[in-house]
Amino acid sequence: MADGSTGRYTLFDVEVTGPIADLPLSPGDAGAAVLIRRKGVPIGFWMQDATASGCVSAGEVAQRIGAHANEKIVAEAIREEISPPSPLLALPLVTVAICTKDRSDSVERLLHSLSAQASALPKRSAGLEILIVDNAPSNERTRDLAARWSEVRYVREPRPGLNFARNLALKEAQGEWLAFLDDDVVVDSHWSEGFAAAWADNRDAAAFTGQVLPLELETEAQVLFEYRAGFRRGFDRVRYGAVLPGNRLYPGGAGIFGTGANMAFKTELVRRLGGFDEALDTGAALPGGGDLDMFYRIIRAGHALIYEPRFLVFHQHRREMKALRFQYRRSWGFGFMCYVSKCIRTDPERRVNLTRLIVWWFVKGLTDVLKQFKRSLQGERHVPPAILIGELYGGFVGLLGGYARSRRRIAKIRKRAVT
Length: 419
Fold this sequence. Notes:
The protein is an alpha/beta fold. The protein has 3 domains: 9-82, no CATH class; 94-318, Spore Coat Polysaccharide Biosynthesis Protein SpsA, Chain A, CATH 3.90.550; 323-418. The protein is built from 12 helices and 14 strands. It has helices at residues 58-82, 104-114, 141-147, 162-172, 191-201, 220-227, 267-272, 290-300, 321-346, 351-377, 385-399, 402-418; strands at 9-15, 23-24, 31-38, 41-49, 55-56, 94-100, 128-135, 152-157, 177-182, 185-187, 207-214, 238-240, 262-266, 305-315. The strands form 3 sheets. Strands 6, 7, 8, 9, 10, 11, 12, 13 and 14 form a 9-stranded mixed sheet that branches. Strands 1-3-4 form a 3-stranded mixed sheet, covered by helices on one side. The radius of gyration is 22 Å and the shape is globular. It starts with 8 loop residues before the first strand and ends with a helix.
């Protein structure tokens, strides 16, 4: 990583109800990344550096489990004794949309991981409809792939931009629920069960997001991204409503809800809200903000959003440092501030809070830069300050009319499509 350690981190999946064994590392491994579960339910994750022993000992694993999840393990055991789980309710039809562009290999990998999900749903559930939305493809590989899967429906969106593809999925979806999966994820074997359980306990909710963990940690960029917590949002279910006590910026910092890599919505509600804003998540020009905008609008419309850690996917993080820098600068800097600018424009009641959010974001960003710069001077593990400065720069550019420029660009795309 940024301290000179650039090796891979081997991933381990440990079930705490079974025997705890040593976790062997390969020569050259920089460390281990450990997911822990209890009866299949994810309850914790950590990364640790390799030692001279060439493994993470069973004793150290047990100690870490105690530190990360001991209270949760005890609480779950007590809950099971007091109130045995009731049978899950039959789930209505869920459309699973995979919006993609020129990534047929990744899509095929995702389809294989989805193949057993319908059978894992509660009895009498309506099943899963799998929909591939091919977004302005440069070849026919994804269409040919879909043709080999009888359970997959394929549609094409010629206009480039993720939110154009999401809106076509919204139009085509037959399910009462519409789940979106990025084409670079693989679903956990308990993914559909996690969604069904969260839905059964929150029948009034309008949206669900889930845990996102790394699929691999092979490169410096991937390790660095996960070192800063990646897409993780914790291992406790959270119900978000109209207010979040103690958070004056809520719901503006919509990243707390989850990520667009793994999210699900009540289909008809999103249609009533007008679908996804096609001036956000437009592709390379503005690669972000579309998921945050939808989360924000759902909360502001008075609906509940549930974060469910059992609704779990594994994401292939960007492998190259150049791609990681682009993610921070454009998706997380520029894209975020374009989303906030849109909220200021459309939600006057929250303008003061959104302005506070902007100030907080820049102050926090500058503080992080200084903190990481100090760590670099001390020879400690750190995030290269240049990456964080790039994120701040992207945010600054986004504030200077980025959303308005994107709206004009999208209007021209729509006009060309009509003519």
